Amino acid sequence: MSLMITDDCINCDACVSECPNKAISQGDSIYVIDPNKCTECVGHFDTPQCREVCPVDCIPNDPNNVESKDQLMQKYQKLTGK
Q1: Distances (CA, A) of 53 to 12, 67, 80
Q2: Tens-digit pLDDT profile for the chain (82 aa)?
Q3: Residue 55: its pLDDT value, please?
Q4: What is the pLDDT of residue 62?
Q5: For residues 6 and 79, what is the distance between their CA atoms, to the nearest angstrom?
Q6: What is the four-CA torsion angle of 45, 49, 52, 54, rounded to 10 degrees?
Q7: Nearby residues of 6 by Cβ (< 8 Å), 6 or more positions away
Q8: Can you give the pLDDT at residue 75?
Q9: Cα–Cα distance between 11 and 31 in angstroms, integer?
Q10: Which pTM does this prediction carry?
Q11: pLDDT of residue 82
């Protein structure tokens, strides 16, 4: 399942540089995560790095983009060519 950023986001920029897939970008009022690029860091790290650095804990799972670990790994392989 990809992740999402809630309205609790304070636009601190901490998550942007942590995303290995460059899935996080500035939206209209808060940062947003592109579900086509988010692998929850599967293939890169054991845990989602954006969650690790978020000071307000505003990055839950996106219920509209449910994916298994296998699907996330396939997306990682497609994105990285590995």
Answers
A1: 10, 23, 23
A2: 799 999 999 999 999 999 999 999 999 999 999 999 999 999 999 999 999 999 999 999 999 999 999 999 999 999 999 8
A3: 97
A4: 96
A5: 25
A6: -170
A7: 30, 58, 59, 60
A8: 96
A9: 7
A10: 0.93
A11: 84
For residue 33, the cross-strand partners are 24
End-to-end Cα separation, the chain, in angstroms: 20
Tokens for 7? 């309205």
Amino acid at 36: N
For residue 28, which phi and psi values (nearest 5 degrees)?
-65, -45
Query: What would the two tokens of residue 76 be?
Result: 């990682």
* DSSP states of 9-78: -----TTGGG-TT--EEE-SSSEEE-TTT--TTTTT-SS-HHHHH-TT----B-TTS---HHHHHHHHHH
Q: What are the chain's domains?
A: 16-80 (3.30.70.20)
